[in-house]
């Protein structure tokens, strides 16, 4: 489209748009330059980290920078993990599992500590 402007240079921490193999442009943050042709990005609305080709990146329009990221760092309260030994494996599998979590604290690093809802405990 006419609003897509390819990048001539990238820097770590730079917000960009990244064209994904699913066919869409996603808000991303450059985490690491891997080579002259690739870098690691985090899709800020999903929390997914991926290595992509530099040619799949574009400048991001300022209007897209004001919306907060939709993915937030969180951790499950340790006391509940022993009750659900397979929970970590299920969440890592990426099978589209959706669980409503209960916010219980914020750590000094800004990570949200969450608990599982009563029906899962």
From TrEMBL:
Stretch forming the signal peptide? none
The record's listing under Gene3D superfamilies reads: 2.30.30.140
The record's listing under SMART domains reads: TUDOR
Q: Where is the Tudor domain?
A: 9-67
Pfam families cross-referenced by the UniProt entry: TUDOR
The source's superkingdom equals Eukaryota
Q: What is this protein called?
A: Tudor domain-containing protein 1 (Trinotate prediction)
Q: What are the top taxonomic ranks of the organism?
A: Eukaryota, Metazoa, Cnidaria, Myxozoa, Myxosporea
